[in-house]
UniProtKB/TrEMBL annotation, chains A, B:
Family of this protein: Belongs to the pyruvate:ferredoxin/flavodoxin oxidoreductase family.
UniProt entry tagged with the keyword Iron-sulfur: yes
Protein known as: Pyruvate-flavodoxin oxidoreductase
PROSITE patterns linked to this entry: 4FE4S_FER_1, 4FE4S_FER_2
Gene Ontology MF: a single term: iron ion binding
InterPro entries: 4Fe4S_Fe-S-bd, 4Fe4S_Fe_S_CS, Pyruvate:ferred/Flavod_OxRd, Pyrv-flavodox_OxR_EKR_sf, Pyrv-flavodox_OxRtase_EKR, Pyrv_flavodox_OxRed, Pyrv_flavodox_OxRed_cen, THDP-binding
UniProt source species: Bacteroides graminisolvens DSM 19988 = JCM 15093
Length: 627, 627
């Protein structure tokens, strides 16, 4: 059962406590194992049976009675913020009920301090990656795929290197001259999925991987190294173009870290990447679903800030209105910025503002939709307007948080996007507004317990589709392309890291609505290889034709080119059904309903081919020959 | 102002009654004319001014004081059903408040008697068509387009001809040997739009039209002729295949007649046609909107029954759930029919039923999805099961209304379909269920007062788009095609009567979800040529590229053919902007915002071309060459 110990512990609990007769407890546990896992086959049932039996191997350990009253070490000596000690830790210790109302003074509106997740240091992984520098080619792919942002590349200058007590490599790249490089693992934050080690190409010349999974105990010495890197090594992201490629993107500090997502989660690497690219000016409207739970379950907030104190603003709404919720944010933002532009225009004719400021205002108005330019101008404008007492400057100073062009994101799962919130999603993309919708597509309602959505493909087992779904997966992306002015992409990070990055970058840059559908392996899929292979599963999915990579970029059509780009190569269809057999959601259909499984798996393959052929026709269509 | 007399009457009212000083009344009327119609241009304002002035031309007529107490002629001597006399007429006379609760005994659930509209005989048209038999080629196009089902072809046998006191022609067609033909107008039901006369091709050899608009007074003698045709001439629809072509379709009795829709309504001819093709087994789930108002505003019910007492069942739900409402009907129907099949299967092994009945049961099970076959079998099975006392026959007899394959329709406007009910529409078409959705596309929320919908094209003025809509019309049809298993069509009856008929026939026959988007000119468009040209406007729309005709038939793909068929010819784009200028919704933009009008009309044309080119590429794509 790998890392799963809950059945062993439950069995031990019954044996030790005797709350019900032990024989009855064991019998009932085994009965429910058959009920819960019977569909998944004899092998799974037997493994669970074995886990129940292993509950008998408990040992009695003496406990010093004085331990019962030991003070909490952390609470005594740490230098963490008061909010962490006085609010977050009591809640995590299940003492939230004891908090007085006054503990929430100033945040009565529900605002919650960001960055609280990093204080958890759960240390729950059985195995964590160990970095083998001699095999590392500094590609940063490990950091790119990490669902919990707990493996990161650090670049140290000579000053920082002096204080460091760990191995480093000479940093590759001329912008890092005289600097050193290290992959550092946050071993107490890691959930031990192993995707980093799985995607690590290692050094082709030497053969070995640069990351090897080792027991947590053996890696505890890395904890202070992580603290040093995170706290004392300054980011070098300004030395590279972080949007240029996968490697560079990982030099940007992730502003989403240590969430409560499952080990190996297929969704969070996308969420994290967006914070690395746009986090300092990002606003997120999040649908209900897994992503709303791991992004903000009190008291844990994984969204955090950069060294300037800037980070994403995040809020959660319902399945059915998440896109409208995000569009409201965008409209409010547009209005505030239009107001700035109006004041700056009025100021041109006044005597109060300096010529320098007037020129800056003019430049801002001309570039107000350019993120980099407005960042630059904001740094110049802010101190000047704050230092001036005229009515124009005072009002602009009061609106200074709107000076930088924002990046509006709307994030939801397939249940929200394909089904319950689809009417709103359609209305929002139709609006033409500059919002970016990220669909974390697990092909099932993951968080509510595995109900079938319109994204669930033919043949998959889900609630409301217990004998296999009988209708095709909806092609949400193609629907959005019919507007002609919506940027659309289907991505799968594990299949093509560069394509995923490119699509996210293009979507954000496109000055209109964007929709990115991101394939996200999930524990509900039951990967036989385990969630440590979540990235590999994406690669397999694309290679066999289960998932297709494409982009539809209206900007290309404006240049007279075909806006549809098929990024997937011709699949190897022979592998399609083997791929299905590697996931319990399909495999269990074969065990329960073999005849239906054959029929539905063939239908699934036919449908995947049908979709691919449609995409191919679109990609190959003659373009620019019309009247 | 053509048929519009309300302004003249209002002006006369103020002059006669003196409820406020006449000068003030005239001044205020003119002020509000500028407010209401200023946008539509000086010409419209001046016509309204002239109407106000014409209110001064009233004449005093003496009224016999005894008339005040004359009894209602109709109520005294007629032979109409009690429900009409006791419930419908009091409500129409605005005496509904006086009805006792007991008047509604037996219909407490809201059920309303069908066919009440035919008793209204409003006689409100100023002009009605007169049939000129010498120019008639018996094409029946006039009946096809009539929004109110008040012009119909009748075929009389020798018996019926003997009793008739009107002119007839020898009926064309060998199935009508020895029979005569007549186009009969229901002059008291007609609203005088004139579309029948407009579409009449006349006799090319003789040159004249077969329908000419004449004053109602001159045509009152036709009223008893209509009564004779409707009441005493039996339908001859069984002699032809009514689904085969436009001409034949009009020999079928319309089961939707004399609704309260506007004169020249672009929607009702589609609704009526569906009742002619499938009305005896049709169920309608109707969204809120114009179609829910004219289809069932107490006490008027235009849905009616055929000579066997069979007709559509109709109910109305909300904008936001109309498709789910219809899908619920379909599911309930499926369940009841599955139950019949189960009982019939069980009966095979029993001793109770006769061998004849068992054979009929077997045949029914094999053909339960075939409309014609189940009609035939129902006539044989019903008397037999009603005459038998076994438990199987008893139960089947109790379910006899489910024996015939039903035709499930879901009808709504563009507001319901493109916007508020779209999430549900998408969910229902995704389900794969055998429902037929008809979208009556007026490109605006007609019934609620002209708000912009996602169907409203670029440049049109509507509420929430007062300076012209700035984003493109949504392509609802193309979205639906992405499922691959949804039959989709765009039609415009006035542009291609045969294509509209073919699409409706194919949609209904397709054993899965169907979506038909029907272009429907509306008074809210402000046709400069008037609603008497509503059919011609559709032809112009298609010829200039404003509207496109196409069908997507998944059944073709199953045969290895391209499922997408473009039925529109290459438009004459030079006429596009002239077309826009023929409708107030566009024209008023030119008057108010000439610069925006130029920009938006160009954008509208570019978008129409973009859509057409996409359709053309789809229609011309290489097919069947894939792996």
């Amino acid at each position: 059962m790998g890392n799963r110990t809950n059945t062993i512990l439950q069995s031990a609990f019954f044996r030790i406590t005797g709350v019900i007769p032990v024989d009855l407890a064991i019998e009932q546990m085994k009965k429910f194992i058959v009920k819960s896992y019977g569909k998944k086959g004899e092998d799974v049932v037997n493994k669970n049976y074995a886990a129940v039996d292993r509950g008998g191997e408990y040992k009695q350990l003496p406990v010093d009675p004085s331990w019962a009253n030991l003070p909490d070490e952390d609470a005594e000596v740490n230098t963490d913020p008061a909010f962490i000690n006085q609010v977050v830790r009591p809640i995590n210790a299940q003492d939230g009920d004891l908090l007085p109302v006054s503990a929430f003074k100033g945040i009565e509106d529900g605002t919650w301090q960001q960055s609280t997740a990093k204080y958890e240091k759960r240390g729950v992984a059985a195995f964590v990656p160990e970095w083998e520098p001699e095999n590392c080619i500094q590609c940063n792919k490990c950091a790119y795929v990490c669902p919990h942002a707990c493996i990161r590349p650090f670049v140290l200058d000579q000053e920082e290197q002096k204080e460091a007590s760990f191995t480093t490599l000479k940093a590759v790249g001329k912008q890092f001259a005289d600097m050193t490089f290290r992959i550092q693992v946050g071993v107490l934050d890691c959930l031990g999925c192993g995707n980093c080690a799985d995607v690590c190409p290692g050094n082709p010349k030497k053969g070995g991987k640069a990351l090897v999974m080792k027991s947590l105990e053996s890696q505890l010495a890395e904890a202070p190294n992580w603290e040093y890197c995170v706290d004392s090594v300054k980011t070098k992201q300004h030395l590279v173009d972080v949007k240029a490629n996968v490697k560079n993107s990982q030099f940007a500090t992730p502003l989403f870290e240590f969430s409560g997502a499952c080990s190996g989660c297929g969704e969070t690497p996308y969420v994290k990447l967006i914070t690395q690219l746009f986090g300092d000016r990002e606003i997120v409207a999040n649908a209900t679903g897994c992503s709303s739970i791991y992004s903000g379950s009190v008291p844990s907030t994984p969204y955090t800030t950069n060294d300037k104190g800037q980070g994403p603003a995040w809020a959660n709404s319902l399945f059915e209105d998440f896109c409208e919720f995000g569009m409201g944010m965008e409209l409010a933002n547009e209005k505030m910025r239009a107001r700035i532009a109006r004041i700056m225009t009025e100021a041109q004719d006044s005597d109060c503002c300096s010529d320098e400021l007037k020129a800056l205002f003019k430049e801002w108005i001309e570039n107000m939709l350019d993120a980099d330019k407005t960042k630059e101008l904001t740094e110049k404008i802010t101190p000047l307007v704050e230092g001036c007492d005229c009515k124009y400057c005072k009002e602009i100073a009061s609106l200074k948080h709107f000076l930088v062009k924002r990046s509006q994101w709307i994030i939801g799962g397939d249940g929200a996007s394909y089904d319950i919130g689809f009417g709103g999603l359609d209305h929002v993309i139709a609006s033409g507004k500059d919002v970016n919708i990220l669909v974390l597509d697990t092909e099932v309602y993951s968080n509510t317990g595995g109900q079938s959505s319109k994204s669930t493909p033919v043949g998959a087992i889900a609630k409301f589709a217990a004998s296999g779904k009988r209708i095709r997966k909806k092609d949400l992306g193609m629907m959005a392309t019919t507007y002609g002015y919506v940027y659309v992409a289907q991505i799968a990070m594990g299949a093509d890291q560069a394509q995923a990055l490119k699509a996210i970058r293009e979507a954000e840059a496109y000055p209109g609505p964007s929709l990115i559908i991101a394939y996200s392996p999930c524990i509900s899929h039951g990967l036989k290889a385990g969630m440590g292979k979540a990235q590999q599963e994406q690669e397999d999915a694309v290679k066999c034709g289960y998932w297709h990579l494409w982009r539809y970029n209206p900007a290309l059509e404006n240049e007279g080119k075909n806006p549809f780009l098929l990024d997937s190569k011709e699949p190897n269809w022979d592998d399609f059904q083997n791929f299905l057999k590697g996931e319990v959601r399909y495999m269990s259909l074969m065990k329960q309903y073999p005849a239906e499984a054959t029929e539905l798996f063939n239908a699934a393959q036919e449908n995947a081919k049908w979709r691919y052929n449609n995409y191919k026709r679109l990609a190959n269509q003659a373009w620019g020959t019309e009247a």
